[in-house]
Write the structure tokens for this entry.
Amino acid sequence: MGSGIGVEMGLRDGYVRVLRTLPDNPARKAGILAGDIIYKVNDEEVYTLTADEISKKIRGEAGTEVTVSIVRDG
């Protein structure tokens, strides 16, 4: 089983957004906040994908690096 970045995601206002970050996980340490739109994963645009599809791209073996680009309102 793989490991993720420590977020719960869901479809809100037509985009997959971070619903919350989990304590002591990479997302929170990187400054990802609830409401952020997951825009890219490793330079691949994913904002039109489902939460499950994005989750599969983010998950990997513990210690694997992933680059996530977000869009934040305001």
